[in-house]
Each structure stands twice: as C-alpha cells, then as structure tokens.
Design brief:
The protein has about 425 residues and is of the alpha/beta class. The chain is built from 15 helices and 13 strands. Strands 1-2-4-3-5-6-12-13 form an 8-stranded mixed β-sheet, sandwiched between helices. A 3-stranded antiparallel β-sheet has the order 7-8-9. Helix 9 runs antiparallel to helix 10. It is globular and about 75 Å long.
C-alpha cells in the first residue's frame, strides 16, 4: 500500500511540476521583464527547488574519462570495467547494495584509474528485475562475489565499501576453506559493518530495538504493475532515502536554502555543485526483500559473522580459514553510519592470517562518505590502499623476500579501547 501511495503522489504532483517548469522557462526568457528583477529570480529559484524536491531521479551515469564495458553479468548485478584491458594491477570495487547506485562511488573509481585496471559492481534495481528471475538474498550475494573473484582473477585486489564488507569477507573465507586458486591477493574493507556491537550508531540501534517481523510488516512492499519487476517483494529505495535524510534533516534543509540563495544571487557554479550532489544522492534503487531482511538479521540484529555463527548454503563461515588474502580495514573518525571499531574487528576475527598481512587505518576528520570519497580519500586513503595492494601483489619484492612491513596487528585490547570511544 505504501508503494502505491508513493506512486500516486508522484502522479498527482506531475501537473504541478510541469507548471513549475513552464513558469521557470518563462521567467528565464531574455524577452521576459521578470528575468531581470529580484522577484523574477526568486520565482525561478522557487520553481526549481519545488520541481527537484518532488520528482523521481533516474540512475546517473559514471561520466568518467574511461570507456565502460560489461565483463560479468547476472540478473541482480553486472561488473563494469573501465578502459581497455591492460597489464595494470586489477582491483574490483564492490559497491554497496544499500539503496544508492554504484555511481555514488564515482570518486572511488576515479582515484584508481591511473594506476589500476578498475572494475565495479553495478547492482540492479530490484523493481526492474522480473519476478521470473527468482529471489536474491545474502547467500546469493556471497555466491555472486565468489563468481566475480573467480572470473576476474588471478591476482585480483578487492575493495568492499560499507555494506559489502560482510558478504565479501564471507566469500573469501569460503574460498580459503576450499583452497580456491583464485582467492584475491588483498581486500580492503572501507567503513564496513563487520561487528556492529562496537560503538553502535543510530542505524545499529534502530535495528536492535525491533525484531525481524516488524521490518517485514513495515518495510516490505510489492512492486507496482508499471515496473518490470511487478509483484516482486522489495524494500523500496524511497524508504531508505527517507531514513538517510532523517538522520541529518537540518543539513539537507540548509543545503536547499543555500541553493535557493545561490540561484537568486546568480551564483551558477555553487548551484550546479548542489545539483550534481543531489542528482546522485536522490537517485535510489529498490532492494530485494530477501536480501534486505537476511542482511538485517545476520549483520545488525544477530551479529552472526563476529559470533562465528554465520552460515552459507548450510556451511559455517569460518574466518579462521583466511590465511592468504591480505586484509586492510579503514574507518572514519566521525563515521555516524559504521561506528569506530566495527570494521577493524575483522583483524581479530582472522587469527590465522599473518600479522604482516594486516593493516588498519583510522582517517581523521571524515565521516562515512569521506572514507571512500572526497579530498582526504584522494590524498590520504587511496594512496594507502594502493601501497597495501602493491606490497601484497604476487610479484612484489617485499612479498617475495617476506620482509617485515609496517602493517600492524590490532589486538583485542586496542579494539576494545576503540569501541569505547
């Protein structure tokens, strides 16, 4: 019912958006006297803010200085490669399947284009996947990761941004347990919820105060008939977006008020930066109900991975099996989505991985988004990840001499200290 109400509101607002667009065009015309008055500019600004605040946003494009080609595809995901095949080191960026499109990681990709052959997971909008394609849950996610690693290997490096940290680590553990030859050389977990019992954020606390049946009743809805996935049960993207915006409502209100003032003042550059950010931020996709509910239960409610109770296709996910794939964890000092200590927990959960294959980096003065995008990501985080990958490449001199690196092991005592901060 909620999805139908959302669709009905979009339909009913269509005439108003059309009227706002026409009014803006008239007031911006060089033949209109309103164009040259403060009142006219204020009316144009009001019309644009209204239209942008009430419309649905399409999937953005990457628009990077590199060609794109699809190298792997399944109903719920495809892997995009940037640029032609090359001899550069290979890195797969596993984008979060949490409501936004993979294009949110445009800056994450761009920082590696000069030094690596870059691949990224481009997850499908569940409302556009026909119901005939069956379901997609967390176990399928792990299977997808294993298949990608196998196809893109050997000598593949992986970056898991936020939500994928758990399925990516589970996939690597599964491959390690089977002595799979295509196990990635290294994996970097950026702001991933490995153990959400540490420094729980508002997101974590919300999941803890409700059982899985509450989420089934209130968050799962069938896809309306006008989409290809009609009838499929999903967690709608617009609900996730409302949750994101509700965490910092003042920030979004201030941003739109500033854009209004920029438009009135004729500051086109500042207004365009606002458009670029919100064109990305407000473009959302639906998640399959099975994946959403299983992730909630496994990661945020029952904490199965850090407790050693997570299972994949009936088999335990044993992080102790990880012995070959080097592991780097990265956290943001001001992350209000994945609290400090949640990602670095992975280092203590992999006791059979050599300390020389582990590294942790806490980035000062960044929040969740800053862990994988922005100036500090480009200047400080990305270079550290590149250096970590280079040290653990198959042909690395450091690796072949088994020389000590500056990688440090984070002990349980240190982890406990971090979690209390």
């Amino acid at each position: 019912m909620l999805y139908l109400l959302h669709e009905a509101s979009q339909f009913m607002l269509s005439p108003a958006r059309l009227a706002a667009d026409l009014t803006r065009l008239v007031c911006e015309s060089p033949f209109s006297p309103l164009t040259y008055t403060p009142h006219g500019r204020a009316l144009v600004a009001s019309c644009e803010i209204f239209e942008r605040s009430t419309r649905s946003y399409p999937k953005p494009a990457f628009n990077l200085a590199a060609s794109e080609r699809v190298v792997w595809q399944r109903p719920f995901c495809r892997v995009i490669a940037f640029g032609p095949p090359s001899n550069k080191p290979k890195v797969l960026i596993v984008a979060p399947m949490s409501g936004h499109y993979a294009t949110l990681l445009r800056g994450t990709v761009e920082a590696f284009l000069d030094s690596h052959q870059v691949f990224i997971t481009d997850w499908s909008d569940a409302k556009q996947v026909p119901a005939s394609e069956d379901q997609f849950d967390l176990s399928d996610y792990v299977d997808y990761c294993i298949s990608m690693f196998n196809v893109l290997g050997p000598d593949l490096h992986v970056m898991a941004v936020c939500q994928p940290a758990v399925p990516v680590l589970a996939a690597i553990a599964h491959m390690e347990a089977e002595e799979h030859p295509q196990v990635p050389r290294s994996v970097a977990l950026l702001g991933g919820p490995i153990d959400t019992r540490h420094a729980p954020t508002a997101v974590n606390s919300f999941a803890q105060t409700r059982d899985i049946h509450w989420f089934k009743r209130h968050c799962i809805h069938p896809v309306p008939d006008r989409f290809r996935g009609r009838g499929r049960l999903v967690y709608p993207g617009f609900m996730q977006l409302c949750g994101f915006m509700a965490m910092n409502p003042d920030r979004h209100i201030s941003a739109h008020w500033e854009m209004f003032n920029h438009l009135v003042e004729g500051d086109g550059d500042s207004a365009e930066k606002h458009r670029e950010f919100y064109d990305e931020y407000l473009a959302v996709m639906d998640l399959s109900a099975e994946y959403y509910l299983q992730t909630l239960e496994t990661v945020f409610i029952d904490h199965l991975l850090p407790r050693g109770l997570m299972r994949h296709r009936g088999r335990p996910v044993d992080l102790k099996a990880i012995r070959r794939c080097a592991l780097m964890t990265i956290e943001g000092e001001k992350d209000d989505i994945t609290g400090r200590g949640q990602t670095v927990a992975a280092l203590d959960l992999t006791p059979n991985l050599s300390p020389s294959k582990k590294e942790h980096h806490l980035q000062a003065r960044v929040g969740h988004y800053g862990v994988f995008n922005g100036s500090r990501y480009r200047a400080e985080i990305a270079p550290r990840i590149k250096a970590f990958m280079a040290r653990h490449a198959i042909d690395s001199p450091l690796n072949s001499r088994r020389s000590p690196t500056r990688v440090t092991r984070v002990s349980s005592k240190v982890e406990a200290t971090i979690s209390r901060v």
